[in-house]
Amino acid sequence: MKIAVFVSGGGTNLQAIIDRIKEGKLKDVKIVLVIASNESAFALQRAADNNIPSVVMSVKSFASREEWDDAVVEKLREAGAELIVLAGYLSLLGQKTVKAYNNRIINIHPALIPAFCGKGMYGIKPHEAALARGVKVSGATVHLVNENYDEGPILLQKCVDVLPDDTPETLQKRIMKECEQDILPRAIGLFAQGKIEIKNNIAYVKE
Ligand code: GAR
Question: pTM of the prediction?
Answer without folding.
Answer: 0.97
